[in-house]
Structure formats: C-alpha cells, structure tokens
Write a structure and sequence with these properties.
alpha/beta; TIM Barrel; Arc Repressor Mutant, subunit A; 2 domains; three-stranded antiparallel sheet; 15 helices; binds iron/sulfur cluster
Length: 383
C-alpha cells in the first residue's frame, strides 16, 4: 500500500508567519510583521540546511520537500525561487521528488501560485477548513468560502495535484453544512483530503474562551461517520487517521513521518530526525523567528541535536506508525531502528490481548477498536 522508497529522506521547511493567528491554532505561527524579513529568513534556512546535512552520513537524494507553516504562500515568488535554488545547490532531489507547499486561500493569486509551480512545486496543500462562510468567520479565517473555491480551482488548474484540509465539529456546524462542505470539496477535483476534527488546544484563544455552539459528543461521532462514509463513497482511500487519497496520491512526505523515515527539519521550531551509525538523532530549532534567524546565521545550531536513547525508540516509532490504517510491517520496525520485535515487548503482547493491535507477528497494525484508542497504544510504549 505504501508507495515509498526503502530509505526516504524528506526535507521539511517551516515558514513561521501568517496574516494573523487563528484562534484554534497551536502551531508555531506568528502574525506577520509589517515587513517580513524574507531575505534573512531564507539565508537562515539555507545555513540551517548546511548544518543539518552534516548529520547525514549518506548523501541520498531528497524524496520529498514540504513547505509548511505558518503560511508559506506569503513567500514572494522571487524568495521562493531563491530558496528552491539554494536547496538544489546543496542537495540532490530524486527525479520523482514530491514538492508540496501549503497555501492559505487568502494569500493565493494568479501570480504566486504558478510561480511556485514553475520553481518546482508539484503538490499544493490548501488550508480551506470549511466552505461555509459562518464557520470560516467563527474560525477566524482570513478568507471567504468563495475565495476558498477559487483558490482550489486555481491550484487544480496550475498544478493538478492538490490536497485540501477540511475541519469538522466546528462551532455552529450541522450535519447538513458538513455534508455541503464535503460535496463542494468533491466537486473541485482534488486528489487528497485531510479531514480533522476541531480540537481545543492548550494555549490557544479558543482554550481561553470556548466558542459558542460546539457540537456535543454524539454529534461529533455522527460527523466522523459522515466524513468517512462520504469520502469512501467519493472514491478516496482512507490510509491514515485523517488522510484520504485518490489511488496513487498518498502523501509521500507524511508517509515518511508515519513510517519513521528520515527527515531534515529546517526553519523556526522545525524538528528533524536522522538515522546514523551511532543511533537516531533528533534536531529541534528555536521557535521564535528572530532567535532562529540569529542562531542560524551565527552558526549556533549544532547544540540543538540530541541522540534518542534506544529505550525511547519504541515510543517514538509508535507515535506515528499506528496512525496508518494498514499499520506497518515488523520488518520496517527492524529496518528503521535496528532492534528486533522483542524490544516492543511486553507492550505488544498486552495490546494484542486487549484487542487494540492485530494478532499477526509480521505486522504492527491497529484493529478498528485500536484506532479509537491510539493514545493508549502510544502510551503503552513509554519507557
Ligand atoms: S493560517 Fe494556519 S498556521 Fe496560520 S494561524 Fe491559521 S491555522 Fe495556524
């Protein structure tokens, strides 16, 4: 099922600014200053990439690049071109490298989107969240439903390989408006959809003042069913907890995370993970853009690398692998960590006995019940 090279190497590039902060968002995103220091930030990203590449013992080509945020579609076409050029000068990209940019419908136009594609982007991920104006207002989004439709149409026209993020369980949302959001999405011809339940995250404006009209538990349950059923009926394959794709359009970049593959993470607050002969290394950059720029431009990133103690590998692996509907093979666990299946005991056997994992020695795969208790599966592997 998983269309991934045996040893993927992904690159995540974080863009930390948005037009303004949405009240539900706990990402490392900041309201943009009047003048974004784009040149300095791009210089910092490339210095960060130089530093991160020193951790890679084998210079294999990148299998995917993902520009996430924040709102990377705030980058000027010139800046994006420079950044892509800088990346290509430093590291080879596979012929079929998947290159995704996240875009907010309120920041897309007929100038920037085609320019990103011209510079190499071959997948556009649009944060639509809803096609209902009332929901968009409650979510504090900067765009209207019509702008969202226009943005997706433009992305489909200039790129043809488009993901659409949609949220449900929104304040004031009904089954009818959710169904209408899904129908609109299907009518636009996208190849991938990520559908997330709105959750109230600590530290967000919504956590401080809950929005009115949040659906109750029963309604959320029904909405979950509607999302699954309508997406399947529309021909999408459910391959990850929130991920649905037309056949052949699984997100290669996210699959690298979910299968514990290697990825470089550059940018403010970005995380990376690299396998080396001395073990698995993790990198984490400072979250504040100004601090990050200063550290990257003054060669102070090396201290932000740590080795993962081997006893933590089961938990780190299980943070993502059970999110895949078909799970992963036992062989993948061994390849990615160098450990045998015995290192997952006794938690593995206990979870099988509880009916949360499939009882198959060749796979690590959640059961239908297990998918409802993913955090319990993950917690069972805490050291
Ligand atoms: S646009 Fe996206 S990243 Fe930016 S604040 Fe809103 S949800 Fe967060």
């Amino acid at each position: 099922m998983v269309e991934l090279p045996a040893e993927p190497l992904a690159l995540y590039v974080h863009w930390p600014w948005c037009v303004r902060k949405c009240p539900y968002c706990d990402f490392n995103s900041h309201a943009a200053p009047a003048a974004i220091p784009e040149r300095d930030y791009i210089a910092a990203l490339l210095a960060d990439l130089d530093d991160s590449l020193t951790l890679c013992e084998s210079r294999r080509p990148l299998t995917s690049i993902f520009f996430g945020g924040g709102t990377p579609s705030l980058m000027t076409p010139e800046g994006f071109h420079l950044l892509m050029q800088g990346i290509r000068e430093r590291v080879a990209t596979a012929d079929d490298c998947e290159i995704t940019i996240e875009a907010n419908p309120g920041t897309i136009d007929t100038a920037n989107l085609p320019a990103y594609v011209h510079a190499g982007v071959n997948r556009i991920s649009i944060g639509v969240q809803s096609f209902t104006d009332a929901s968009l207002r409650k979510l504090g989004r900067i765009h209207s439903a019509q702008q969202a439709v226009d943005a997706v149409k433009l992305a489909v026209r200039v790129c043809g390989n488009v993901n659409l993020d949609l949220m449900f369980a929104l304040p004031g949302q009904t089954v009818e408006t959710l169904q209408s959001d899904l129908d609109t999405a299907f009518s636009l011809g996208v190849q991938h959809m990520s559908c997330y339940e709105l959750t109230i995250e600590e530290g967000t404006a919504f956590a401080k003042a809950l929005p009115d009209g949040l659906p109750d538990e029963d309604l959320v349950y029904d909405m979950n069913d509607i999302v699954h059923e309508k997406l399947r009926a529309a021909g999408f394959v459910h391959y990850e907890v929130s991920g649905y794709a037309a056949p052949g359009h699984f997100c290669r970049h996210n699959l690298t995370y979910w299968t514990f593959g290697d990825y470089l993470g550059i940018g403010a607050g970005a995380h990376g993970k690299i396998s080396t002969r001395s073990g698995v290394l993790r990198t984490q950059r400072s979250a504040r853009p100004a601090t990050y720029i200063s550290e990257a431009l003054n060669c102070r990133l090396a201290a932000q690398t740590r080795r993962v103690p081997p006893e933590q590998l089961p938990f780190e692996f299980m943070l993502n692998a059970p999110r895949l509907i078909e799970g992963v093979s036992a062989d993948l666990w061994q390849r990615r960590t160098g450990l045998d299946m015995g290192a997952l005991e006794p938690a593995l056997s206990e979870l099988k006995a509880q009916g949360l994992l499939v009882d198959d020695p060749s796979r690590i795969e959640p059961t239908d019940k297990g998918r409802l208790f993913l955090s319990d599966i993950q917690a069972a592997f805490l050291p």
